[in-house]
Amino acid sequence: MPRLCLRTRGLRVAMSLPTKVMRDGQLEKRSSGLLQLWKKKRCALTEDGLRLRDCKGGADAASSAWSSKAKELRFERMATVDCVEYKRGLVYFTVVMATGKEIDFRCPQEGTAWNAEIALALVRYKNLQAVQTGRNRRLSGAHLGSTGEDEEL
């Protein structure tokens, strides 16, 4: 949520401040290429969205499995999470972005599935945004009313 903006020689660089990781683990993402292969991704579900990185190595996934390049699917750009099907012990689901782009994932069915956690986090984020928007409207309405601007019109 909080963002820090720095100015460096006329360039504006936005940096996200660290956010709480709610779940960390592995998902498989379908590539958008011609063959649409499933690729393992190391994922971190945060309060702001889902961070995906390529998996490197195997057993010691905690520290060395993160590559330097990451993709972030932010909740502000997500529209919905659709569960497509349960098949052979796997849950197939789709993250639909506000632009209409669909990103397919799959994960093991055991325990709490990633799709449920992502969907709940998305709802939590959207509700928080709606509450904040309501507060801002009320504050701006109260501010306009207290200055007497309404009476001058």
- Strands of the largest sheet, in order across it? 6-5-4-3-9-8-7
**Radius of gyration of CA atoms, rounded to a whole number:** 20 Å
Helix/strand class: alpha+beta
Report low-confidence residues grouped into runs of 5 or more.
Answer: 1-15, 59-67
How much of the polypeptide forms β-strand, as a percent range?
over 45%
| Percentage of residues assigned to helices | 10-25%
Give the ordered list of helices and strands: EEEEEEEEEHH
Distance between the first and last residues' Cα: 38 Å
Mean pLDDT, nearest integer?
Answer: 79
Q: Helical stretch count?
A: 2
For the largest beta-sheet, the strand count, sense and barrel status come to: 7 strands, antiparallel
Task: Give the total of beta strands.
Answer: 9
Give the overall form.
elongated
Written overview of the protein:
The chain is an alpha+beta fold and 153 residues long. It is built from two helices and nine strands. It has a seven-stranded antiparallel β-sheet with strand order 6-5-4-3-9-8-7, covered by helices on one side. Strands 1-2 form a two-stranded antiparallel ribbon. The longest helix is centred in the C-terminal third of the chain and has 34 residues.
Would you summarize the structure shown here?
This protein is an alpha+beta fold. Helix content is 25%, strand content 47%. It has a 7-stranded antiparallel beta sheet, with helices on one face. A two-stranded antiparallel sheet has the order 1-2.
